[in-house]
Structure prediction request, 179 residues.
Amino acid sequence: MLSLLIAVILLLFSLYLFSSFVKPAFVEVRGLREEAAGSSGYLEAQQEARTAIDKLYNDFKNAANIEGLLAASLPSGADVPGAVNQTQALARLAGLDVRSVMVTVRATEDGTTKTTFTKKVGSMEISLKAAGGYESAKRFLSLLESNITIMDVTSLKVATGALGGAAVYDFVINTYYQE
Prediction:
């Protein structure tokens, strides 16, 4: 009977020790693990932000010639064949069937400031008639928007095709050049 009583006392003493020392240590370890997981997520977010900033910096640094980029967006001289070719290529890439193209070259305008970067700027109006679906026309507008050469769509007319065929789009696009 005495050995059974000692066993129960030892069991109660071990439960007391567990609840007093071991269980709080487990709670503390769980809290530290949660804190480490939160810090790890924060660290990953900071590393992703740093990587994005480094990429932006390298892109800007590697853009070796800003004047070359400006020359690509505002080409020198009225390059009518180049502008027509570029517009037709974008339309075909978007999936439109080009029916006709007409170009009107406008007179140049003087720059308003007297810096060395300002030159006379002229414009060309390109009237493009093309047939295709809505998604193709939408893609064409997206390609014009992201094109390096500055192009503005000033007018867009849509007509239904004969016998329910593809829609016919009349685009009026302005593009610019410098002299």
